[in-house]
């Protein structure tokens, strides 16, 4: 059985030229990249993606950050619970708390610019893939 999950390499990853480093970590884990698109996100896409945060105090800053430059959107495929494998590889949301060996633990600097997004459940992955890759 295989699962798919959404991964977003955020603008700070692109700006810091870390795309290859992060993608290679997923490939080294024997996960497959089945879709990939470099794009700048618009307000509508961000509102759908972050719908649970609309209206919260930090939402404006989140949208400003996520739309300031290109994001690499990917669908990553692997065995059952791939979303959990990816989340473990990402590390804690705050890079200061992320374990060495994780993406955020090794490469992250700021809590507000933490390099990567990964779906937090199979249900979220299905919803988020539909937003970014509706034809999959």
Automatic annotation (TrEMBL):
<keyword id="KW-0808">Transferase</keyword>
<keyword id="KW-0067">ATP-binding</keyword>
<keyword id="KW-0460">Magnesium</keyword>
<dbReference type="InterPro" id="IPR034907">
    <property type="entry name" value="NDK-like_dom"/>
</dbReference>
<keyword id="KW-0546">Nucleotide metabolism</keyword>
<feature type="binding site">
    <location>
        <position position="10"/>
    </location>
    <ligand>
        <name>ATP</name>
    </ligand>
</feature>
<dbReference type="Pfam" id="PF00334">
    <property type="entry name" value="NDK"/>
</dbReference>
<feature type="binding site">
    <location>
        <position position="58"/>
    </location>
    <ligand>
        <name>ATP</name>
    </ligand>
</feature>
<dbReference type="GO" id="GO:0046872">
    <property type="term" value="F:metal ion binding"/>
</dbReference>
<dbReference type="InterPro" id="IPR001564">
    <property type="entry name" value="Nucleoside_diP_kinase"/>
</dbReference>
<keyword id="KW-0547">Nucleotide-binding</keyword>
<dbReference type="InterPro" id="IPR036850">
    <property type="entry name" value="NDK-like_dom_sf"/>
</dbReference>
<dbReference type="GO" id="GO:0006183">
    <property type="term" value="P:GTP biosynthetic process"/>
</dbReference>
<feature type="binding site">
    <location>
        <position position="87"/>
    </location>
    <ligand>
        <name>ATP</name>
    </ligand>
</feature>
<dbReference type="GO" id="GO:0005524">
    <property type="term" value="F:ATP binding"/>
</dbReference>
<protein>
    <recommendedName>
        <fullName>Nucleoside diphosphate kinase</fullName>
        <ecNumber>2.7.4.6</ecNumber>
    </recommendedName>
</protein>
<feature type="binding site">
    <location>
        <position position="93"/>
    </location>
    <ligand>
        <name>ATP</name>
    </ligand>
</feature>
<feature type="domain" description="Nucleoside diphosphate kinase-like">
    <location>
        <begin position="2"/>
        <end position="136"/>
    </location>
</feature>
<keyword id="KW-0418">Kinase</keyword>
<dbReference type="GO" id="GO:0006228">
    <property type="term" value="P:UTP biosynthetic process"/>
</dbReference>
<feature type="active site" description="Pros-phosphohistidine intermediate">
    <location>
        <position position="117"/>
    </location>
</feature>
<dbReference type="GO" id="GO:0004550">
    <property type="term" value="F:nucleoside diphosphate kinase activity"/>
</dbReference>
<dbReference type="GO" id="GO:0006241">
    <property type="term" value="P:CTP biosynthetic process"/>
</dbReference>
<feature type="binding site">
    <location>
        <position position="114"/>
    </location>
    <ligand>
        <name>ATP</name>
    </ligand>
</feature>
<dbReference type="InterPro" id="IPR023005">
    <property type="entry name" value="Nucleoside_diP_kinase_AS"/>
</dbReference>
<comment type="similarity">
    <text>Belongs to the NDK family.</text>
</comment>
<keyword id="KW-0479">Metal-binding</keyword>
<feature type="binding site">
    <location>
        <position position="104"/>
    </location>
    <ligand>
        <name>ATP</name>
    </ligand>
</feature>
């Amino acid at each position: 059985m295989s699962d798919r999950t959404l991964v977003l390499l955020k603008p700070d990853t692109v700006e810091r030229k870390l795309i290859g480093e992060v993608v290679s970590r997923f490939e080294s884990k024997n996960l497959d990249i089945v879709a990939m698109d470099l794009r700048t996100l618009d307000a509508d896409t961000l509102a759908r993606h972050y719908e649970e945060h609309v209206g919260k105090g930090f939402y404006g800053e989140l949208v400003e950050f996520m739309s300031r430059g290109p994001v690499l959107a990917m669908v990553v495929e692997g065995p059952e619970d791939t979303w959990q494998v990816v989340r473990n590889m990402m590390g804690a949301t705050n890079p200061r708390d992320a374990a060495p060996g994780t993406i955020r633990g090794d490469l992250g600097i700021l809590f507000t610019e933490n390099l990567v997004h990964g779906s937090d459940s199979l249900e979220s992955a299905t919803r988020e893939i539909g937003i970014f890759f509706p034809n999959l």
